[in-house]
Design goal:
- The complex is a heterodimer of chains A (112) and B (113).
- Chain A has no helices and 11 strands.
- The N and C termini of chain B lie far apart (37 Å).
- Chain B is mainly beta and 113 residues long.
- Classes of the chains: A mainly beta (112), B mainly beta (113).
- Chains A and B meet through strand 4, strand 5, strand 9 and strand 10 of A and strand 5 and strand 10 of B.
Chain lengths: 112, 113
Amino acid sequence: GESVGLHLPTLSVQEGDNSIINCAYSNSASDYFIWYKQESGKGPQFIIDIRSNMDKRQGQRVTVLLNKTVKHLSLQIAATQPGDSAVYFCAERETSYDKVIFGPGTSLSVIP
Amino acid sequence: DAGVTQSPTHLIKTRGQQVTLRCSPKSGHDTVSWYQQALGQGPQFIFQYYEEEERQRGNFPDRFSGHQFPNYSSELNVNALLLGDSALYLCASSRGTTNNEQFFGPGTRLTVL
């Protein structure tokens, strides 16, 4: 069936560097995308979202880029901090359906 | 303002038993979705409740059922537990059903022996 997938299962970055986490999606009807952060023992936490009528959206230290042509989504974290260490999930949603489809996740480790 | 709360935090059951998990949505939210997250994987959508009715369902057998109460809280019931049902069960709430931000609870860790 349709699914959302990630290119890299793990990512290690030096503190202060920028991080880029990539995601590929396969459902061309998806029109809403979300990035979640999940720390150990906690539920996923909303980071940022983007609708399909946008290519880029910025938040505090985070930017999400959407390339609908190649069905690719990325999360950029500026000046990565130790507190950013977690598993990051991209997720997609189609307006006509209420369910959110999660990708398998990328584990981000920040090296002090 | 309390966020999404779930109970219990941990639960151990044996095969064949039945379990009920509970969720209270964030204040002001009327929609509850349930997810199953196996170890090392992303959450998988089970179903969503709005106005006390199941609106959407993922690829889960009928052993998984739910309910939403007038105060918007929800229960997830799993019958005839299998070893493979061991997972973290997450509840997420939102306001309405159209692409609104979902807030997740901490989850209930279910272990089936």
